């Protein structure tokens, strides 16, 4: 095409977002890890009943875990706001400052 310039800048594959399946698998893994921590915290709280502050701390840590696990599991990474730029600003070309001959016919 005349007058248009083609951008031959290579696109790095490493900049591509992970696939939906990979994102979903990572979120499921995080959910499973967080939910599997709740029962050990509760068991540790029951076993440490002789140290009340530690037992209360472990129970308080285990209470918000399901809520946080659901929030993290349902949270997808934000989409990139990329807009296709079909029109580029061309650099304005200034006229030369020298004298140009005029041809009279």
TrEMBL record:
InterPro entries, A to Z: DUF3099
Domain of life the protein comes from: Bacteria
Entries under Pfam families matching the protein: DUF3099
Designated name of the protein: DUF3099 domain-containing protein
């Amino acid at each position: 095409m005349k007058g248009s310039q083609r951008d031959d800048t290579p696109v790095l594959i490493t900049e591509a977002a992970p696939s939906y399946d990979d994102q979903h698998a990572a979120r499921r893994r995080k959910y499973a890890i967080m939910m599997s921590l709740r029962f050990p915290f509760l068991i540790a709280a029951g076993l440490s009943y002789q140290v009340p502050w530690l037992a209360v701390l472990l129970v308080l840590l285990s209470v918000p875990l399901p809520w946080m696990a659901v929030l993290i599991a349902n949270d997808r990474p934000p989409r990139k706001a990329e807009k296709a730029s079909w029109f580029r600003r061309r650099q304005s070309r200034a006229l030369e400052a020298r004298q140009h001959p005029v041809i009279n016919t």
